[in-house]
Amino acid sequence: MTTPRSSLPSFLPINEIFHSLQGEGYFTGTPALFIRLQSCPVGCPWCDTKHTWEKNDDRIIPFDAMLNKTVDADTWSDTPLQTLVDYIVKAKEQLVVITGGEPCLYDLTELTTAVLGMDKRVQIETSGTEDIRANMATWITISPKIAMPGGRKVLMGSLYCADEIKMPVGKPADIVVLLELLKTLDEFAQDRPELIYLQPLSQSPKATQLCIEMAREHGWRLSAQLHKYLEVR
Questions:
Q1: Residue 147 has what DSSP assignment?
Q2: Which tens digits make up the pLDDT trace of 44-92?
């Protein structure tokens, strides 16, 4: 089902669209269509998509040129939502992942509603530092970015909306930060996400072992970034 053109007047800045497997969290191993939006103010030092941080108008390219990108670049397409919806409805994948950059800089209500209207699932991957504006049936994955150079704070209201929390872990101090965050969330609301994933930074063996040990201790799960082991996008 395609949403009527008159109801989708807005635009979204898209860095790239690609077909792959979801390699992280709850949907690991699921074929997915990824939509990567441009712009992110968080500034994670380990970020592997730094080309999405800035949204410079002189880097705008046509939608078709964006689809045909073969290398990471800071070029992006100012794409009408209807054009995007028309592309998604033709995709074979039943999971659509909206990522970034920081996708929650934008109101994603119309887009997520349109995708759900196609009988597909839609997932947003966010840092939790922005308000989440999306259809309530959207699967929300928050990878909390705390004390990053951009100075953004994780919002308890956004964290409460999460279906899963996926914590990047490089050292024991990251576990302490996660425990403090969950404690604060427990004080904020009675219910919180039950799915807690630990994701080793840069596939480090030391970080991976730490994640396994902490998952055992706390009843959490490991997110091992399957796509990187398979060497796919």
A1: S
A2: 998 989 999 999 999 999 999 999 999 999 999 999 999 999 999 999 9
Place of tokens 């109801």: 7
Q: Which two tokens mark 164?
A: 């899963």
SS3 113: helix
* Nearest C-alpha neighbor of 223 from the set 19, 27, 56, 39: 27
**Considering the entire predicted model, what is its pTM?**
0.93
d(CA 37, CA 50): 12
Specify the DSSP class assigned to residue 74: S
What are residue 91's phi and psi, to 5 degrees?
-75, 145
List the alpha helices (DSSP H) in 37-108. 63-67, 81-90
| Residue 60 main-chain phi, psi, to 5 deg | -75, 135
Point out which residues pair with 111 in neighbouring strands: none
Distances (CA, A) of 59 to 12, 17, 51, 66, 106: 14, 17, 11, 11, 19
68, burial (CB in 10 Å: exposed 0-12, middle 13-18, buried 19+) = exposed
CA distances from 150 to 14, 40, 41, 45, 147 (A): 22, 9, 6, 10, 8
In this structure, the number of other CB atoms found within 10 A of the CB of residue 198 comes to 26
Give me the domains of the chain, ranges plus CATH numbers.
5-230 (3.20.20.70)
Neighbours of 33 (CB within 10 A): 21
CB atoms within 10 A of CB 37: 24
How far apart CA 40 and CA 50 sit, in angstroms, is: 9
